[in-house]
Amino acid sequence: MGMDFYAEISDKIDENGDNLRAPDKLYEGIVLVECLGNSSFRAKYYFDFICDLGYMIIGDVVSPDYVEEIYQEMKRYIQDEWTEADEDYYGISSTGVYNLLKWFEVIAKNKFQIYVSS
User: Which residues in the chain come in under a pLDDT of 50?
Assistant: First the structure.
């Protein structure tokens, strides 16, 4: 069992009363572990990295404002501090971490929220 992140449009509700998922086409070309260019991915591979940035993603929904905070700190860290030692420690390649940043960038720019499923 794992944790999954789903990008959702925070102000759009479907006929069942659930938030609409973000369109997969926005994520084309973003490759994450167990995900290939869509609006959801297996978060367990990236959870420790996100937590070590100072952000806990727990509960059901991560608000657009919190997503923006995470994105900005992740961007800063990757640009200023990411090293090969981080690749070894987290088990995430430089390409993988940049793709994670791109995934968060799409959410932040569109003011989407993240639905967390565990």
Answer: 1
Question: What backbone torsions phi and psi does residue 66 show, to the nearest 5 degrees?
Answer: -70, -40
In this structure, are residues 63 and 113 in contact, taking their beta carbons and an 8 Å threshold? yes
Token pair, residue 65, equals 């404002």
Question: Three-state SS string across the chain, please?
Answer: CCCEEEEEEEEEECCCCCEEECCHHHHCCCEECCEECCCEEEHHHCHHHHHHCCCCCCCCEECHHHHHHHHHHHHHHHHHCCCHHHHHHHCCCHHHHHHHHHHHHHHHHHCCEEEEEC
Q: Taking each helix axis from N to C terminus, what angle separates 94-110 and 64-80, rounded to the nearest 10 degrees?
A: 150
**For the CA atoms of the chain, what is the radius of gyration?**
14
Residue type, 99: N
- Mean pLDDT rounded to a whole number for the chain: 89
Please give the model's pTM, rounded to 2 decimal places.
0.89
Q: What is the pLDDT of residue 87?
A: 94
